[in-house]
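## retry 2 of 3
previous attempt timed out at serialization; input unchanged, resubmitting
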Amino acid sequence: MPSPKLRYRRILLKVGGESLAGEQSLGIDQEAVTALATRVIEAHKLGVEVAIVVGGGNFWRGGENEHMDRAPADYIGMLGTVMNALALQEAIERLDVPTRVQTAIEMREIAEPYIRRKAMAHLKDGRIVIFAAGSGNPYFTTDTAGALRAMEIGADAFLKATKVDGAYTEDPMLNPNATRIEEITYLDAINRGIKVMDATAFSLCMDNNMPIVVFRLEDSGSLIQVLEGNRVGTLVSAGPND
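## retry succeeded, writing output
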């Protein structure tokens, strides 16, 4: 039974590929993957249905490659997300929690193809579902894939794990006096130029009234605090009643 304290009972967690690299800039650091798996399992043990979209930035950034056409560069990036998904699956299952990896590009020998109804059945049966290969289409980020999957599975919220502890008035890495925003509406975020995620992903969430929580997953207990509706990171929604 889910904890009665929970605000969100089914979530889509978007994790950047850098989270799996640890202190390294590239590749997979097993300690970082295990730490990520442990935090996800903490949420799962509360009865939360957890789906994850993982990025591939620790291997490749297709949209930023200047020496290749965008489409093949993006496909290479999608393959990077599959490697990350398999590494995360192995770490979670090593801690005795069942998972399924579903890919938007078919690779039946290593993962299931993405099927919406099957993904939802896995969640109801207590499995953690990891979505890989983005949306299967070039020119779309894994943020957009995360927003899309959040809508498709009927998630209560789209949780975006970042390097900083929320959305700020300015880039806190460039301006140490930038102020963290605790709560903001979609329209205010647009009008103020707050960079929550890419425009396509943000529009999908806004058009479908999907709450977005931007937070730092590495902070101890932050994911549980978000799930219980506590003030952690930044909440972006239609208004105060959401």
